[in-house]
């Protein structure tokens, strides 16, 4: 049987809350808030608690493929629709560091004009679907208890710039051998040490599971057109500056467009592909990532001052900005409900910006 034929059906019992989960999430959010406030004090500006540094803000279109099998024809991918999309490229730490220091890369995607009921009671007017992705297939701290332990470590070392910087990179969705030095041994971390390569050539993953309509899945976004595939593994330019990633993105999109493919890995066994521990890789030989849509990004000015301010200070991306058919699943996703809300509320208050959801792609300035 193929992975498609074996896809596990979604039901409410798929998620199982951890013992003391609410209390652990309270502690995660409180600790993140304390660190975030001190970063804000340093810069006199509200930053994202994770993925503070942006490297490009892009507009494009996501085209869902026709002729998908029923198991892949789900949620926003149910029809061969075309959605306007805005993307924010970032690196993981919750502070602004030099791009010479390797850090996990992120992309946040907001699709507009999506059909279907929204998940949040306060979002019934919204027509957006966000996907937040990082360039690793798993998150090393895959449930609330593990995440709390590392967050506490990060806070404890927040005044040590080097330690904090690397621990932040590790915590905020990647890995670092440094955590061994401060008392956390995790073999997964050693395999995640990311090379400092071109941000447009990486494959980005949801790392944690989400509801995929009647099924359960993880998703990824992979370079598709020749120009971005050629950047996979490409080292940063010699003499790279502190804002090298932004410079690479801006230079690229001044003269090129790009295509990426959105792919879906269906869960075919809840034992071997758990939703509650996002540190466990789902075996790709058992269930490969299957193409469902193409993201096309035309040439554009990727980091104008107006775009940067809008994306960094006004826009919010959040995995819980979604339709019911793409509900985030598992302990780490539940921790994100309050973490993103708290981070965005603080950032918007400190920068005195409105908390809005866009309705039209032209809301994003050029
Ligand atoms: C499961 C894997 C995860 C992925 C793929 C992921 C990815 C991302 C990305 C791409 C961003 C940048 C969003 C933007 O550009 O606006 C982000 C921001 C953020 N992440 Fe995560 N993340 C994950 C897990 C977590 C967890 C477990 C927490 C905390 C419990 C967390 C807390 C945050 C916060 C607070 C922000 C900033 C939100 C804001 O101020 O708007 N993330 N994440």
Automatic annotation (TrEMBL):
Matches recorded under InterPro entries: Catalase_sf
Gene Ontology molecular function, alphabetical: heme binding
Function according to Swiss-Prot or TrEMBL: Decomposes hydrogen peroxide into water and oxygen; serves to protect cells from the toxic effects of hydrogen peroxide.
PANTHER family assigned to the protein according to its UniProt record, in alphabetical order: DOMAIN PROTEIN, PUTATIVE (AFU_ORTHOLOGUE AFUA_5G01990)-RELATED, DOMAIN PROTEIN, PUTATIVE (AFU_ORTHOLOGUE AFUA_5G01990)-RELATED-RELATED
Name assigned to this protein: Catalase
Organism per entry: Rugamonas aquatica
């Amino acid at each position: 049987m193929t992975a498609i034929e074996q896809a596990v059906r979604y039901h409410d019992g798929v998620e199982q809350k951890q013992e003391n989960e609410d209390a652990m999430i309270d502690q995660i959010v409180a600790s993140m808030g304390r660190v975030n406030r001190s970063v804000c004090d340093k810069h006199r500006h509200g930053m994202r608690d994770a993925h503070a540094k942006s490297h490009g803000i892009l507009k494009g279109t996501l085209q869902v493929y026709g002729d998908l099998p029923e198991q892949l024809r789900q949620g926003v991918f149910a029809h061969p629709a075309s959605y306007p999309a805005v993307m924010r490229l970032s690196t993981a730490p919750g502070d602004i560091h030099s791009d010479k220091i390797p850090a996990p890369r992120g992309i946040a995607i907001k699709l507009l004009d999506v059909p279907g009921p929204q998940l949040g009671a306060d979002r019934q007017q919204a027509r957006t679907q966000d996907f937040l992705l990082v360039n690793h297939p798993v998150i090393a701290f895959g449930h609330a208890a593990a995440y709390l332990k590392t967050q506490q470590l990060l806070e404890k070392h927040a005044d040590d710039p080097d330690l904090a910087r690397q621990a932040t990179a590790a915590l905020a969705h990647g890995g670092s051998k440094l955590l061994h030095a401060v008392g956390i041994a995790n073999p997964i971390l050693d395999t995640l040490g990311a090379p400092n390569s071109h941000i447009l050539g990486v494959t980005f993953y949801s790392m944690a599971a989400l509801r995929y309509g009647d099924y359960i899945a993880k998703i990824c976004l992979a370079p598709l057109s020749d120009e971005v595939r050629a950047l996979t593994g490409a080292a940063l330019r010699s003499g790279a500056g502190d804002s090298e990633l932004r410079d690479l993105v801006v230079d690229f999109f001044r003269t090129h467009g790009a295509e990426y493919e959105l792919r879906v890995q269906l869960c075919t066994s809840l034992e071997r592909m758990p939703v509650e521990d996002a540190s466990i890789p789902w075996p790709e030989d058992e269930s490969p990532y299957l193409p469902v849509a193409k993201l096309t990004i035309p040439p554009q000015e990727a980091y104008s001052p107006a775009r940067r301010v809008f994306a960094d200070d006004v826009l919010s991306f959040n995995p819980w900005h979604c339709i019911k058919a793409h509900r985030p699943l598992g302990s780490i996703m539940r921790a994100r409900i309050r973490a993103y809300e708290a981070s965005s509320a603080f950032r918007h208050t400190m920068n005195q910006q409105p908390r809005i959801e866009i309705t039209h792609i032209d809301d994003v300035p050029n």
